[in-house]
Amino acid sequence: MSPILIPDVFLYFGTFCPKVPTRGGATTATTYIRPYKQAAGLGAVQTMEERFAYGLKPQKLGAVSSHLCDPATAAAEFLLVKSEYQAATARPVERGALFFQIRQAFPPGEVTAEEANKLGFETAMRWTKGKYQFFVCTHTDKGHIHNHIYFNSTAFDCSRKFHNFLGSSFALRRLSDRVCLEHDLSVIQNPKQHSKGRFLHYGQ
């Protein structure tokens, strides 16, 4: 199946699920955000390649889109920006988070893979304000469709790094809810929280 290229977005269409009507007050997208540092015994590129390979597994993938990078070479492209940032600031690439992952999950039947990917892309674009490279992998291998959103911790213009802030999980959830509401989807009212502080998602 051939990918379709449109400006600033790389989009691959895979298996879709049928759309069903939403019900007011029903649960929909749940989210969490996680930073990833350089893994012990691995270099920065190897750490990113290992994590990104999971998101890009063909047997899981329903759709993928990106901003300021090609998902197939995202690890090298992220590192290039980091290297330029290091040259300008003398701050080592290995210091702090290399990238962040957002997971956004939807209840069974509420969205297709294409729709979920567009929602993930919009969420990522608004979360990063378009200043960070990111790509969105939509998985369809579980009982629910879900997005893995990977974004560089270093801004594309090398002016800053993204740092998780107090309440970032709540801010992300509010943004995801807003995006869903704007697309006439329902929102989760009282998500159960994991002991580590993130909200439980479908299939966990």
Structure description:
The chain is an alpha+beta fold and 204 residues long. The chain has a single domain (4-182), classed as BirA Bifunctional Protein, domain 2. Helix content is 29%, strand content 20%. It is built from 4 helices and 7 strands. It has helices spanning 44-55, 74-89, 113-128, 168-182; strands at residues 4-6, 9-11, 30-36, 61-67, 99-105, 134-139, 146-152. The strands form 2 sheets. A 5-stranded antiparallel beta sheet has the order 3-5-7-6-4, sandwiched between helices. A two-stranded antiparallel sheet has the order 1-2. Helix 3 packs across helix 4 (168-182). The longest helix has 16 residues, at 74-89. The relative contact order is 0.22. The model is unreliable at 1-27 and 193-204 (pLDDT under 50).
Write the element-wise H/E pattern from the N-terminal end onward: EEEHEHEHEEH
CATH architecture annotation:
2-Layer Sandwich
What strand order characterises the main sheet? 3-5-7-6-4
Number of domains: 1
The number of helical runs is: 4
Helix content: 25-40%
Uncertain segments of ≥5 residues (pLDDT<50)? 1-27, 193-204
This entry's quaternary arrangement is single chain
The CATH first-level class comes to Alpha Beta
Structural class: alpha+beta
Distance between the termini: 30 Å
Average pLDDT confidence is: 82
Question: CATH topology, what is it called?
Answer: BirA Bifunctional Protein, domain 2
Shape: globular
Tell me the layout of helices and strands.
Blueprint: E1 4-6, E2 9-11, E3 30-36, H1 44-55, E4 61-67, H2 74-89, E5 99-105, H3 113-128, E6 134-139, E7 146-152, H4 168-182
Antiparallel strand pairs: 1-2, 3-5, 4-6, 5-7, 6-7
Helix pairs in contact: 1-2, 3-4
